[in-house]
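Our working data are protein records whose layout never changes between entries. Getting from the letters to the tokens is the skill we practise here. To make this concrete, we reproduce a full record directly below:
***
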Amino acid sequence: MTVRIKDIAAKAGVSTGTVDRVIHKRGNVRADVQAKVEQVMSELGYRRNLIASALATNRKWKIACLIFDPSDSYWRQIKEGIDRAQEATAHYGVRIRHYFADRFGPDMFARHAASILEERPDAVLMAPSFLRESLDFIKSCNELDIPIVLINSEMEAPGALCYIGQNSYQSGQLAARLLHFGINQEATALLLNLEADTQNSQHLKDKECGFREYFTKNHDKEIKIVSENITNFDDPVQLCCIIGKLLNEYPDVAGLFVTNSRAFKVVGCLERLNRNDLLVVGFDLIPENLTYLRANKIDFLINQNPVMQGYLGIMNIVNHSLLDKEVVPLQYLPLDIVVTENCDYYEQNSYALPMVV
């Protein structure tokens, strides 16, 4: 039997308007009256229609998204996932404001974080690429009771609602296994971090740790690992110079691992250096990487599915803040291995997301 608002009001001895305010959390109800209404709702087996309640509030839900400049193909895909989630939840009054930080330093990130705190949004979606600044921001959000969801970079962050993305340590181990298949005895493997602030980037540290740990545990091949942090990766001349020096210094290099989405930059240098004999493992199905994958100049790409990260980030906020649903703290996405033969499938199916929820 359907339990009606007037049934609850009659048993609780209050008006239907009071019951409605309790159900839709509109306030203006004394604590003892609210407790009585909630007790009657429980006794009668009333289950609130969460979707209807969210629609009935007729309020705007402001979500701040602190990510990085979408002129970078990887972050453009994350923004696409966020935008698709906003479109799918627009009928709930979800409104998103983007704050785009600079990958080349934490200063703009910190300024955006301060602006977000001044705006006091209902929730925050953030890619915590800069460890120190992110921890400070998360602490401030916790103090203001602002729910915060993390994507792309996992970190120890007490108070964060959840993390959505890959397990960076395991992705480093997977990259090592892929290189292990194709590298002969007594060779060198290069691990290249093309990032402006590697020491402040937890996910890159975790990838390198996983990569090294794999070869430590597998002694059937004597693989030497050489890591290099390259901050001026947007200068092709400088990048080619650095990679050329590494190849000269370690003539037995047989493969390399690029720890983020910039494998295409390294392969471009390898072309100029006439070194097409190396096994290359990288991340992400961005157009530049896919071009080299199809040309068999990148051997493996590990798909971090940035579109899904952005989409699920917003959906978890909606589920928690609007629909009162439980959110799983750790939501690891699959470690998909993409090669020439299956890249078309992944490119065509990465964007099949619900457009209305």
Remarks:
- The first strand starts at residue 61 and ends at 68.
- The domain at 5-48 is CATH 1.10.260.40 (434 Repressor (Amino-terminal Domain)).
- The first helix runs from residue 5 to 12.
